[in-house]
Structure formats: structure tokens, C-alpha cells
Write a structure and sequence with these properties.
Elements (H helix, E strand, L loop, with lengths): L8 E8 L2 H11 L3 E8 L2 E10 L8 E6 L12 E9 L2 H13 L5 E5 L4 E6 L5 E6 L49 E8 L2 H12 L2 E8 L2 E10 L11 E6 L14 E8 L2 H13 L8 E2 L3 E7 L5 E9 L18 H4 L2 H7 L5
Parallel strand pairs: 1-4, 5-8, 9-12, 13-16
Antiparallel strand pairs: 1-13, 2-3, 3-4, 5-9, 6-7, 7-8, 10-11, 11-12, 14-15, 15-16
Bound molecules: fe (ii) ion (2 copies).
One fe (ii) ion (FE2) binds next to strand 5 and strand 9.
Length: 350
């Protein structure tokens, strides 16, 4: 039987203290489509918002639990350091710099990371975000068919002048060239980068595509894994980890932090195979949970990072027309009888 290999990320779920503010930021400012407005099925007094591209394609889905009173989280071992969103070109990245700066969002970069250029900022809750260019890619310092085979020391000199660049005109609208195509990469923090790598390779079928050092901290290992067939790296699949070897600084969940990340299973049948596979590796995994728009199983990385495998289907058009996604508050059938109470408890999103 062919070994299981995930196609990449399905979604990332973060924590917000204000759904209206999150909608204004990710919808209004960053131009994502709200593809589902629902509640946390385990806590129906709180919103669960889903943003995405193309009706919510896997790999482009950003979701938020709204917990108004959540304390501020902090990054650390077993947590996500930042989420990078993909943009096609450096020119479009500069438009984002101008648009964000004009909106009063502090931005740093672009910084030339070699494999891509990176612009950094944070959402209103403090979740660290990056906008990363699609290219030039991981093959700039090792052959495309032999990625991740050696430890790459980043160049000590890098182009600094691009940090001063911005777009010359205000950018009041998100133009098509600026489209943020969902998850470019997710960077987490681990206390044992070799153990983590072994886990992601064996449990999820990801492949190491780059072994290097954190360009902002030359003593910290920075490894990249992705869907990789020995020729090309799949989009929406790059998980990178900073290795804080032996660190006891554990991530604190909360506002401005990632709650969990989800990888793809293409079908319910494949998800059943994934579950058997994880169990065969001795990984503690939940039973299949029905999340209406997909089905999910949950487990953890060795460093504690909460993980999920979610099915591609049935998708967000299962309970409202594809051209009206996100317009109405949608509830699963077992919560419909509580709709009046639930609607009263939620702040309208307008
Ligand atoms: Fe990054
Ligand atoms: Fe999830």
C-alpha cells in the first residue's frame, strides 16, 4: 500500500477576543472572504468565523474562535510562532506594506529570506502574521531534487535596502494581484527539532525540504517540512520549526495565539486510514468528530502542538448557497432549537 502523505494544510484556527474586529481585519483589510459564520459547536455562545479563498479551499482556510475574555497567549514550545500568508509577487507585497501602514498597522520588512521575501505585522489580538512571496523557492541553495539533505548556513550578508521600499500610492482596494492565497507556511517552536521532524515525516508523510538556521538568531535551527515528491514542493504545505533545544518555555494558549493547525485528508475513507496509521504509531488520536463542513480527528505533536486531520469535504456550501457563504448565521441541526438564545448572546457582525 502506498504510504500516506498529506497534501498539506486544511486550516489554521486562531483565538480572537472580538469577532467584529477580526472580521474588519481579515475581511475588510486583508480581503479574505468570510465563508462561514457559525458558533463554536462546543461553546455555542461564541462565534466561530471561517475565512478562505474560492469558497474555502483547503489550505486557504483561517478560522477564529471568539473568546471575548481570553487572556493573552504567548508563543513557546508547542505553539505557533507565526502564520505566513502567500502573495504572488514582491510588487504586490509592497502594496500590502502601504495598505497596512496607511491603516495604522505597524509593519516590518520586506526582508529577503532567500527562499521568499517576508513582511511582518500582527493582527489586532497580537497573532504574528507574515506576507511571504511565492518565490524564488527552496531550490536557490540546493538542487530541487535533493532538498533538505544538508545543513544550509544562511548568507551573513543580505540585501537590506529593500526594507526601505514601499508602494508609492495609497492602496484603498485589494487589487487582484494582491490576493492572499491562504497559508504559505506556518512556523512553530519545538524543543527537539530532530524528534519533531521524525514525527512529521512518519505521522503525516511530510518531507524535510530545508535544514538551516533562524536568520534572526544564528544559533537556532530552523527546519522546513512540506509535501515534497522529490521534484517540487506543494503549495499550502510548508511547516517550519524553530528548534529551542531543551527549552522549558512552553506556549501559553490564548488570544493572539494559534489554537491548532489542521492537515488534509482527501476523503472520509482516507481519514480512516490516517487514524489507523496514527494508532499504529502509538499516537493518541480521537474518534472522528463531525464538524458539518468536514470531519476531524485530533492528536498532538510530541512538543504538545495541537493537530487535526480534516477531510476536504463536504465543504462550506453544504448548508447555504455557494454565492452566499458567510451571509447568515449557520447552526448545526442540534443547535437550531436554541437559535433565539444563541442569536441574543452574540454581537451582530453587521
Ligand atoms: Fe515565516
Ligand atoms: Fe480545526
Amino acid at each position: 500500500m502506498k504510504p500516506l502523505e498529506t497534501l498539506g494544510f486544511h486550516h489554521i484556527t486562531m483565538v480572537s477576543t472580538s469577532a467584529p474586529r477580526t472580521l474588519a481585519f481579515y475581511g475588510g483589510l486583508l480581503g479574505f472572504n468570510l465563508v462561514k459564520k457559525t458558533v463554536n459547536f462546543d461553546d455555542p455562545g461564541a462565534y466561530h468565523l471561517y475565512f478562505g479563498r474560492g469558497g474555502g479551499r483547503p489550505g486557504t482556510i483561517l478560522t477564529f474562535f471568539e473568546w471575548a475574555h481570553a487572556r493573552r497567549g504567548h508563543w513557546g514550545v508547542g505553539g505557533v510562532h507565526h502564520l505566513a500568508l502567500g502573495v504572488a509577487t514582491p510588487e504586490a507585497q509592497l502594496k500590502w506594506k502601504r495598505r497596512l501602514t496607511d491603516a495604522g498597522v505597524p509593519v516590518s520588512g520586506p526582508i529577503d529570506r532567500g527562499y521568499f521575501k517576508s513582511l511582518y505585522f500582527a493582527d489586532p489580538d497580537g497573532q504574528v502574521l507574515e506576507i511571504a512571496t511565492a518565490g524564488p523557492g527552496y531550490a536557490i541553495d540546493e538542487p530541487a531534487d535533493a532538498l533538505g539533505r544538508r545543513l544550509v548556513v544562511p548568507p551573513s550578508e543580505r540585501e537590506e535596502s529593500i526594507q526601505q521600499l514601499t508602494h508609492p500610492e495609497p492602496v484603498p482596494e485589494v487589487t487582484p494581484d494582491m490576493t492572499l492565497d491562504g497559508i504559505h507556511h506556518i512556523t512553530g517552536i519545538t524543543d527537539d527539532v530532530e524528534l519533531a521532524g521524525d514525527f512529521y515525516e512518519r505521522a503525516l508523510g511530510l518531507r524535510v525540504v530545508k535544514k538551516t538556521f533562524n536568520q534572526d538568531d544564528e544559533h537556532t535551527k530552523h527546519y522546513f517540512w512540506a509535501r515534497y515528491d522529490g521534484a517540487a514542493v506543494g503549495s499550502h504545505s510548508a511547516l517550519t520549526l524553530f528548534g529551542w533545544e531543551g527549552s522549558r518555555q512552553i506556549a501559553r494558549p490564548g488570544a493572539g495565539q494559534t489554537h491548532h493547525i489542521a492537515f488534509r485528508a482527501v476523503s472520509a475513507d482516507e481519514q480512516a486510514e490516517w487514524r489507523d496509521h496514527l494508532l499504529s504509531l502509538g499516537i493518541d488520536v480521537t474518534t472522528v468528530r463531525d464538524r458539518t463542513y468536514f470531519e476531524s480527528i485530533y492528536f498532538q505533536a510530541p512538543d504538545g502542538l495541537p493537530l487535526e486531520i480534516a477531510t476536504d469535504g463536504p465543504g462550506f456550501a453544504i448548508d447555504e448557497p455557494a454565492d452566499e457563504l458567510g451571509a447568515a448565521l449557520k447552526l448545526p441541526t442540534w443547535l437550531e432549537e436554541r437559535r433565539p438564545d444563541i442569536e441574543r448572546s452574540l454581537v451582530p457582525l453587521g
